[in-house]
Amino acid sequence: xxxxxxxxxxxxxxxxxxxxxxxxxxxxxxxxxxxxxxxxxxxxxxxxxxxxxxxxxxxxxxxxxxxxxxxxxxxxxxxxxxxxxxxxxxxxxxxxxxxxxxxxxxxxxxxxxxxxxxxxxxxxxxxxxxxxxxxxxxxxxxxxxxxxxxxxxxxxxxxxxxxxxxxxxxxxxxxxxxxxxxxxxxxxxxxxxxxxxxxxxxxxxxxxxxxxxxxxxxxxxxxxxxxxxxxxxxxxxxxxxxxxxxxxxxxxxxxxxxxxxxxxxxxxxxxxxxxxxxxxxxxxxxxxxxxxxxxxxxx
Length: 299
Prior knowledge:
The chain has eleven helices and eleven strands. With 299 residues, the protein is of the alpha/beta class.
C-alpha cells in the first residue's frame, strides 16, 4: 500500500487544532485540500478518525491509538532531514571506505588517523585495495567506497576529483650500494635487478610503461604487494626499487636506504582524490574530503 506521508502531517494538524479550518491555516493549505487529505486518510484507515461535534473535530478511538506513533514517525523524519544537512564529527559513528593506491597507504593513512582520532574518535575508516579504474565509477556510485586516492586517470562527469599533490619517481637502494657511487646512471639502473611493487598480479608498473615508451626495459627479479617488504628485501641485496619520492623518503627514515633521482626523465605524476557527484554536498563526505586535503597539504 502506497501512502502519501504528507497525509500524516495533516492528521497531526487536525488532531492538534481540532478544526479543519484552523489546521488548513497552520499548514498554509486551503480548507478543501485538508478535507481531501482527511478523506484519503479515512479510506486508508477504514475509520472516520475525526467526528464533528459543533465546531470541533473530535478524534475517534482509532485516531487516539495511532497519534503517538504518527508523531514519533514524523519526528524521526524531521531528524533525518536535519541530519542529512549536518554532520557532527565528535559524535558521529559513520563508516567510511577509502580506496587507496597501495604505495600511498603508508603515507596517507597515518596523517588521516591523527586527525580522525582527535576530531572524530568514533568514526570507522576502512582502507581497501585499489579499485580497478574500470570499476571506480560504479564503486563510488553504489557507495561501496566513499572516496578514492589514485594517480590522475580519465573519468566521466559523474566523478569529481581534486589534486592532492604532485610526486615523482625515485630509485631506492641499500645503503652504500656497491654498484652506485654518487650518482645512479642509466646503464647501471638497467643492468641491476629490480623489485616491482604492485597490488596487481600482472601488468607493468607506471615506471615500466614510461620506460617502454623510450624503448628501455629493466630486469624485474621480484614482484610483491607492499613497499615496506620490498624495502626490507633490498637492505640485504643489490636490487633496486622505483617508487614515489614521498613514500621513499618515509621508508628511508625508517631503514638504512639511499635515494637516487631517476637516471632518465619520465616525468612526474599527480595524486588525486576522487568522489561521486551524488555525495558532493553530503556533509560527512565533504568533511572527510576536506580533512584529507588538509592532511596532504601539511605533509
